[in-house]
Specification:
Keywords: Amino-acid biosynthesis, Aromatic amino acid biosynthesis, Lyase, Phenylalanine biosynthesis. By secondary structure, the chain is an alpha/beta fold. The chain has 10 helices and 15 strands. A hairpin with a 6-residue loop joins strand 13 and strand 14. The termini are far apart.
Amino acid sequence: MSGSQNVEKAAKTAPAAEPETSISYQGAPGAFSNLACRQVFPDLTAVPCNTFAEALSAVHDRRVRLAMIPIENSLGGRVADIHRLLPGSGLFIIGEHFLPVHHYLLAPKGATIETVKRVHSHEQALAQCRDLIRELGIEAVVHADTAGAARDIAAAGDPSDAAIASSLAGEVYDLQALRSRIEDKLNNTTRFLVMSRDRVEPPVDGQPCMTSFIFEVRSQPAALYKALGGFATNGVNVTKLESYITDASFQAAQFYAELEGHVAERHVARAMEELQFFSSRLRVLGVYPAHSFRRQFRTE
């Protein structure tokens, strides 16, 4: 079977998506987001989307039940545009997942390390595998996403071309792995958020929780200091704080923030009340169970 026939077969055998039993993600089949869907929701049909906005809209329009959205990577930092898309999506965060990212050098059947002259992938994946690219002395070619690169080299079937992608992409497009675990650094991890149209919060029973929210303050001296003071006085740990200018006058800043705890817990509620007093806008995007990945780095 030729490479193009493998790609066509993968597309034709993809299961039909029923709204209540499906989850959307950005990228081609075999993307790391696809792998995250399989790990967390193995019983749901994973539906690929071209953009993050499309993946979120699919949930909002009830074409799928959930969306799996990457928000940050331990090496590459935050995923562009996600923090801007989340507030306007009309969705809620109901969970998080940490996915170890392991890259594979994939090639058409019959190719060898010696035949490969070019390697294709997303620019971040290429950057995370510089050592191997330098060792092999091959040309790096940027693609929109890792799985899309795997799909393209499978269709072309040229032994001179390889892709850096997930092991799942190799399975989907029937490619062989010439090298495995080729990332330069260990502990390369991507954090995902699970998005839902319906707000679902865990009970206040002592289990570790995370709260994600946005707020806005005027651009004036000490505005942010006053807004965040309640978290310090109430012993609430803010784990993330990122700012965005929201208007053409540059007079107001919007912040995306995350904290450890449940908004219904007394000390968190007091801190949020103080924040609301000093901010012109406050919206909770979700309260959800903290992933077990966080425990290995927690210090008492």
